[in-house]
Amino acid sequence: MKKVEDYVRSIPDFPEEGIIFRDITSVLQDADGLQLAVDSMQNLVKDLDIDVVVGTESRGFIFGVPIAYNLHKPFVPVRKKGKLPCETLAMEYDLEYGSAEIEIHTDAIKPGQKVVIVDDLIATGGTIEAAVKLVEELGGEVVKIIFLMELAGLKGRERLKGYDVASVICYDGK
């Protein structure tokens, strides 16, 4: 039986020398790999009482939507600034070089709702930290944050201290 990591393609020296890029397109392009990835991530929340699944643009959508569908829960997208059509709440966060801003609709999360946040990868944790702040500012309770992959060497989990964080695959490096 194959494991999810067997479907992940590792590309050395991309985007720069010394970095091993973990490519999920190889997971998505294989029906068995995709099903195993979604099922493995969904298994991380199987015993939780949740009301809403939140996914960050764009690969959080890929995994968050089927999980929400399977659990018969609503899905809420967190998008890059300027992509959502109704009233939004925004949060700016730092990147390695510069900053970025994400938004959520102000009516997407109701006070007291239990939320799981989904993304494909945790690296430095900045995007998810900003998503957590958006959910909480709307009154939601983040009960778990799940990822397909974690790059432990970038210490993103440290930015999410106090939250239940889980990943299907954990790579030691960057």
Describe the structure.
The chain has a single domain (48-171), classed as Rossmann fold (3-Layer(aba) Sandwich). It contains four helices and nine strands. The chain has helices at 25-28, 31-43, 59-71, 126-137, and strands at 9-12, 20-23, 52-56, 75-80, 88-94, 99-105, 114-122, 141-151, 165-171. Strands 5-6-4-3-7-8-9 form a seven-stranded mixed beta sheet, sandwiched between helices. A two-stranded antiparallel ribbon has the order 1-2. Strand 3, helix 3 and strand 4 (75-80) form a beta-alpha-beta unit. It is globular.
Give a short overview.
This protein has 174 residues and is an alpha/beta fold. The protein has helices spanning 25-28, 31-43, 59-71, 126-137, and strands at 9-12, 20-23, 52-56, 75-80, 88-94, 99-105, 114-122, 141-151, 165-171. Helix 2 (31-43) packs across helix 3.
